[in-house]
Amino acid sequence: MADDESHAEEGDSRSDRTVTGADAETPAAPRADGGAVDDVALDPWGSSTVADYRKLFEEFGIEEFDDVLDSVSEPHYLMRRGVIFGHRDYRPVAEAMLNDEPFAALSGFMPTGDPHIGHKLVFDELIWHQQQGGDAYGLIADLEAHSARGIQWDDIDEHAESYLLSLLALGFDPEEGELYRQSENEELRNLAFELGSKANFSEFQAIYGFDGETSISHMQSVVTQMADILYPQLEEPKPTVIPVGPDQDPHVRFARDLSTRMRFFKVTEAYASFELDDAERELVAIAYEALADGTDDAETDIRCEEAAEWLEDEAPDSTALWDTVETLKAGGKEPLRPRVRFFDRNATEDAFEALIEAIDGEKRVYEGHIDTFDLDREAAEELAREIEVDNGGYGFIAPSSIYHRFMTGLTGGKMSSSEPASHISLLDDPADGYDKVKAATTGGRETAEKQRELGGEADECPVYELYAYLLTGDDDEFAAEVYEECVNGERLCGGCKEQAAQLMEEFLEEHQEKREEAKELLDDLDIQLESSRK
Ligand code: TRP
Ligand code: SF4
């Protein structure tokens, strides 16, 4: 888990994972599942695999993408086919997209090798969000490549250019979006520094397994990534999606955390002077409602100790119950009354004063917080952000993410940069691409006869994955046809691979032509291709 330079050989983190399939498929949009391997571990610099995507939901709290699919008006084929399988908090992005409100998409690429078909997924996700009206950002994580993988600057330059060419060739609009290198972006590094003051080493240990041997630069690359993720919100807060592989989830969670820690105010709901956690608040709410029913003057009549008694007598036993009762007892005769509380977390004095001014209705001002009685929670959140932004704060909205499945290696195991036959680079000679597909492992049976009888195992087949993730493009019918014909035994692997190999060859030819055309475009952009670093 720790900073381990031996991973330098492993190539990019997005590629050297293998996936496992599980879910059901629908005829219209067959799911693209790979073959089974180890256990779940989310390590941005490791080479772990994801065996069971369902575990990511249970163990890490990643949400299923299917749950938000309906809120996306014209979902990308990677969404429709379950390649994008998970998300954190994507709803605000989907909503902004529907309502034509500002939103952003950002992802980053470590220039450790050539871009390959795994990166293409992320390129496509960025481009799609850009086409949906989002501000799109593509960044070259050169500081990370240098510090976490030990790549030299010359090599970094070469690979950086190559990533940018492929991103442009696939349709990223650099006039509308922004491309940058971490090493050349001063605003970014300033933000990283600020965020670093809200993070400490114990957290790095807990989240990333860093230890006494971890280099300081590697740690800096972490806060740099945190800054990347919040960079689209430097001008104004907006929902932002980070399309990545699930290995990046620790970064996303940490960035969400830091975005909150940077906020001027924390808004909570309370019932009295003391704080409650969510479970306790729920219990107090029940007691309050019940007692308020029996009085004309709920504002002054209900005391904490009464609520404690009520809970003791009436509430079903729960783990939070006795803590809640204790807290309420300690409140004694203090009246119980619902309120929305603003805590001063990082506010300037001016901002605190401005907030007091801006609150309508009844309010009570204390040393580090303000209680309000006529505001609902949502309005309070909105007001807090507005005051923060007006007073020089960022007002960050916690960033969202979407996660795609890792592609299975063509040779059956992981896709790994150190094993060229296992993956297809976007720079591969088209004829080599053809050959690699022809040589790929399949989900086919030992004999043609058996295959006709039992059908192929498309869900276990790296070739089928190529169709679903890339070769059939937006054409769901085509993808469904391959799937159906395979599992029905109408399709045999020889012909299936021949077709896939030809499509791959065509794709690579066309992509490489477009890369050539993109060179001019790239030259005109304000991005340093030759690093001044040594
Ligand atoms: N750590 C990412 C990787 O290993 C690269 C990266 C840097 C990134 N900054 C980012 C990804 C911001 C998403 C968003 O590939
Ligand atoms: Fe894979 Fe095609 Fe063979 Fe089915 S027919 S197992 S999809 S190669």
What is the CATH C-level name of the largest domain?
Alpha Beta
Whole-number average pLDDT?
91
From the alpha-carbon coordinates, what is the Rg to the nearest angstrom? 27 Å
CATH topology of the largest domain: Rossmann fold
Helical/strand content category: alpha/beta
What would CATH call the architecture of the largest domain? 3-Layer(aba) Sandwich
Tell me, what's the shape?
Answer: globular
Bound molecules: tryptophan, iron/sulfur cluster
Low-confidence stretches: 1-28, 33-38
Tally of helical segments? 22
Extended strand count: 11
The main β sheet shows up as: 7 strands, mixed
- Beta fraction: 5-15%
Overall tally of structural domains: 3
Strand arrangement, largest sheet? 1-2-11-6-3-4-5
Distance between the termini: 28 Å
CATH superfamily of the largest domain: HUPs
* Assembly state: single chain
Indicate the percent of residues in helices: 40-55%
